[in-house]
Amino acid sequence: MVPGYREVRQLGAGRTGRVFLATYQQTGAYVAIKYLNATLRRDTEFMDRYRSDTHELVEIDDPNVVKLYEYVETQARAAIVMELVDGVTLRTLLTEHHRTSPEAALAVLKSTLLALAAAHERGVPHRDVKPENILVQADGTTKLADFGVVVHAEEPGVPAGSPEYMAPELWTQGRAGPPADVYAAACVLFEAARGRPPYRAYKEGGNGELDVPALRDEHLVEPVPVEVAPDTLRDLLRRGLAKDPAVRYASARQFAAELEEDAVAAYGPNWENRGRRHLAELATLLALRFPLARTDHAATAASRIRDRMPRVPRLPPHLWVAGATVVAVAISLMMSGGRLPPGPGAILMPPPETQSVQEPTPADA
């Protein structure tokens, strides 16, 4: 446990570690704490780089970036304390809804590119842009998380990253940097609009396991599949997914600027608002999966709903008993087809009212 914080519950776990919902004890504010797994902690190259990156990451204050509050490392663990985003990952949203509208896909890409620009201008590449690291909030805005937290694929000789989003230079030279982030962001645009990554290859057997060597070849030599993308996205995808880094957009900020021009030309000046509204609709359908859905905030909301419900009038106990008796008899008559059961009947009488009987308190009502 990180000193100064109280853990509430685990939110999730993945290849890089486990994430917990926690509160900052001095203020009660919610945060998310990610504990890096043992594999990453044993990777000396990763740990040296990440320690260096955190000095820059804590300085980034951008609405498109999940804020990093502090990094805590001991001999036993390494923890990242960050802003809690009350929403779902883009991966969850795509799994449930398959795809988004083109305007929504562009809204996701614009936010992601602005987040990348904020980090790149401080010399920090993301290294693993993918739907799992993009968080969609209830208002349709998105934030990019997990800068620099990346693991190697399970197959030997494969560089660190997620194969479906890895640029050609990563496969051939292991060169991570802003151009590779731009490529991965373009992959996310394609997937959000089409419901699948631009390149995919699976092993025979139908178990959904990636064929990593075949996927590598597709990233290196296959043409960009723009013909299956919406018309308005094709130029952005063609350049964003260019095999040669020199042909891609010179920076994430330039990519975002040209995206804005193309989106306005195709959809009008309100394209982003419509895109975010669509994302908000999709995310709200998954509100029970939000981190705060099972906390005191949810209980307070439920309490407010109960407060708006009509109050049942307070009655003396003997009237409650009498009412219950009438209901029981009515049910018995209906179940017997309107005939009373044979044999002696029992008549329940309310108990005599005594001085010791009190009206129920609000907690009893």
From TrEMBL:
<keyword id="KW-0547">Nucleotide-binding</keyword>
<keyword id="KW-0067">ATP-binding</keyword>
<dbReference type="GO" id="GO:0005524">
    <property type="term" value="F:ATP binding"/>
</dbReference>
<feature type="domain" description="Protein kinase">
    <location>
        <begin position="5"/>
        <end position="264"/>
    </location>
</feature>
<dbReference type="InterPro" id="IPR017441">
    <property type="entry name" value="Protein_kinase_ATP_BS"/>
</dbReference>
<dbReference type="InterPro" id="IPR011009">
    <property type="entry name" value="Kinase-like_dom_sf"/>
</dbReference>
<dbReference type="InterPro" id="IPR000719">
    <property type="entry name" value="Prot_kinase_dom"/>
</dbReference>
<dbReference type="InterPro" id="IPR008271">
    <property type="entry name" value="Ser/Thr_kinase_AS"/>
</dbReference>
<feature type="compositionally biased region" description="Pro residues">
    <location>
        <begin position="343"/>
        <end position="353"/>
    </location>
</feature>
<protein>
    <recommendedName>
        <fullName>non-specific serine/threonine protein kinase</fullName>
        <ecNumber>2.7.11.1</ecNumber>
    </recommendedName>
</protein>
<keyword id="KW-0808">Transferase</keyword>
<feature type="region of interest" description="Disordered">
    <location>
        <begin position="343"/>
        <end position="365"/>
    </location>
</feature>
<dbReference type="Pfam" id="PF00069">
    <property type="entry name" value="Pkinase"/>
</dbReference>
<keyword id="KW-0418">Kinase</keyword>
<feature type="binding site">
    <location>
        <position position="34"/>
    </location>
    <ligand>
        <name>ATP</name>
    </ligand>
</feature>
<dbReference type="GO" id="GO:0004674">
    <property type="term" value="F:protein serine/threonine kinase activity"/>
</dbReference>
<keyword id="KW-0723">Serine/threonine-protein kinase</keyword>
